[in-house]
């Protein structure tokens, strides 16, 4: 089953939320863990216990594992493995992007089902041009995986690039161009396509057309200030495709597994109530 279909099924079953695994040094300390690979390992295991099969999406942030070098990456690899096929889909947040031939290798590393780090979907950056992402879409297609492309990111620096106009004199913004290309890739897919956009909950408003017939990952919800009201206002009639994503907002409830689960359930209840 395609990633788009699997995402749709998971959202129906659990609610739309994506919970991020972002083991910040401050959170390790708050959870009474050492800022070491052992602490990381324990943090990740608690997250797996709390979220696997409980929420539609879990998003490990690779950076916080890479911080510990090869041993941290081993923990990431095991975390992905433990989360996959539990009902929760793994969105690995690695924000990759490079010239096509290198993009091919990244795609094989994260989206080929036989790869040690294979996830259900990854995040990618379109800064080398949308066309450079083709290998990600091709490998994803072959493996029923998904790809989330940065469009309107949640950070305040994003607009300087994303609101710039394309060189083709159409007047379309860079973000609008990304969204239009995703809509083309997802055309005709039902219940939705596998190629998603990342649109922050904090962006205020969007002039771009967000109807891409694919999933829209919405970080910035929670710790960065985005609210359910923001999501409702921003996404209007594409709200069914929205996957609000929060990391610190839920992780702050740890290390108690029941408390983490409850915090994740509260996010879903709040969103479904919208
Ligand atoms: O791709 C992402 O997930 C992402 C895109 C974006 O525009 N903004 C953003 O915050 N993120 C990621 O989402 C997570 C946000 O974490 P919290 O702010 O703790 O909820 C981090 O792992 C970010 O790297």
UniProtKB/TrEMBL annotation:
Pathway: Pyrimidine metabolism; UMP biosynthesis via de novo pathway; UMP from orotate: step 2/2. InterPro entries: Aldolase_TIM, OMPdecase_AS, OMPdecase_type-2, OMPdeCOase_dom, RibuloseP-bd_barrel. It catalyses: orotidine 5'-phosphate + H(+) = UMP + CO2. It holds the Pfam family OMPdecase. One of its GO terms (molecular function) is orotidine-5'-phosphate decarboxylase activity. Its EC number is 4.1.1.23. Gene3D superfamilies: Aldolase class I (3.20.20.70). Belongs to the OMP decarboxylase family. Type 2 subfamily. HAMAP family: OMPdecase_type2. PANTHER family: OROTIDINE 5'-PHOSPHATE DECARBOXYLASE (PTHR43375:SF1). This is Orotidine 5'-phosphate decarboxylase. It comes from Aeromicrobium wangtongii. The gene is pyrF.
